[in-house]
Amino acid sequence: MRQQFEALGKTPANHVPLSPLSFLRRAESLHGPRTAVIYGDIRRSWTETARRIRAVAGGLVGLGVQRGDTVSVLCPNIPELFELHFALPMTGGVINTLNTRLEPETIAYILDHADTKLVIVDRELSPLLSRAFELLGRTLPVVEIVDPCTAAKGALNGIDYDDLTRAAPLPVALPDDEWDAIALNYTSGTSGRPKGVVYHHRGAYLMAHGTGTAWQVPPYPVYLSVVPMFHCNGWGHPWLMAMLGATVVFTRIPSADRILDAIRSHGVTHFGAAPIVLQMLADADNDAVPFDPAIRVLTAGAPPPPSVLEKTRAMGLDVMQVYGLTETYGHISQCLWQEEWNDLSPAQQAEMQAQQGVAFPMVEEVAVIDRSSGAHVPRDGVTQGEIAIRGNTVMAGYYKDAEATTKAFKDGWFWSGDGAVLHENGYAQIRDRLKDVIISGGENISSVEVEAVLYRHPAVQAAAVVAMPHEKWGEVPCAFVELRAGSKATPDEIIAFCRTNLAGFKAPKAVIFDILPKTSTGKIQKFQLRERAKSGIH
């Protein structure tokens, strides 16, 4: 019997590579007349959008983009970046979305490390790319997006993106191997230099399916593009929206007034956002009539303050917290609402919603494990372990970093570095960050990177950066600095120095001068500094 089963092999009829490109083919065929994109005065159907995507893919192939080539994109959330999430994979190329808030030095590092062959840039961000090229010591071929909704000046004399849309359209073809890379995302870690996280077509496909199921998104939603597509490719939402025949609304700038106006003008039903965005909306919409029906919202990036969840619930936002990392394609666990929570007070409900929850359906397992013993922690809400994940939406690995990949996948798990407890209902909740990464307004900040800049100041003898609670941003960098003998400096001077060498959001928001606590071997005892920052004792 076993031989008979084993004789049944894979054929083109029963085994097709999984890829989100199949969603584009479906959208063009099934949802063609429906509106796919709304941006300013722009309205495009799925037929028009799919044809543009296929033409851009043809234009990119004409520029020499081939299977495995990295193409970096520096662009805010506008239709062109959405299109590139399909057009680049169609060529076999790998999309590398660059964080538009990064400083030129880090962008230059990523362009070099990623082996970028071509850069596609929104013209407003051309000066930033120019400075990155200067630091890189060379230029790369450039395609420029000229957005009619902004009055950007200056150019890099690159090819116009619109010229690509006039190329001969390619047919939608799936990759030969679903393990082929589809995206390369960079994440800040404790090493101070971002790591390149490789996604494959299979994971992107399953991420979209799992998200649609967990979020219970019906066909034809109106989705507002708030989550930056440089964060885990917008948590995989661009691919999901094609599968569902959604209308995707863009605002370019995710300000509270633009978001609220888009929601009311276009009947938005779904969006994702970091807790800081939710707080902005709550602060800007205090006197408005609550949205009815409620708008479905995913939030991630840092545990949202219960007070923010309570406010957004009152304004008609049905918020579900999700948890994940760049290494897991974004969200892999959800705080799924339980019926028994209906009887709790609003404040108690918000406390429950702040948990990281249970695994998404496309994830095999999200566990909390005691690293020292290898045992799963009990469901007592007290015993702390580390969140570990396994499943098909875990990265292929770190680009050009076999050692870090092996370490991350030790014992058959991906280790998150996040310390958590497990509650009686099986919901995980983060208690502390095991890695020295600060999450501020949804942005990851490497403490080591900030410390490296502090050490460059002539008055600094030693420095340590930890997270400090912040009402608006969730947490922000707090620097503890030990000055050199005979040197003087002020907090404002140190902060200004950091801002000239780092992106603004990475600079410390407070500087405390003191002798740093150290072990007998000279290592700084950061746990003491974290407690001081949390308690406000400086």
UniProtKB/TrEMBL annotation:
InterPro entries: AMP-bd_C (IPR025110), AMP-bd_C_sf (IPR045851), AMP-binding_CS (IPR020845), AMP-dep_synth/lig_dom (IPR000873), ANL_N_sf (IPR042099). This is AMP-binding protein. Pfam families: AMP-binding, AMP-binding_C. PROSITE patterns: AMP_BINDING (PS00455). NCBIfam families: PRK08162.1. The keyword Ligase applies. Keywords: Fatty acid metabolism, Ligase, Lipid metabolism. It comes from the Bacteria. The keyword rRNA-binding does not apply. Residues 30-399 form the AMP-dependent synthetase/ligase domain. The lineage of its organism: Bacteria, Pseudomonadati, Pseudomonadota, Alphaproteobacteria, Rhodobacterales.
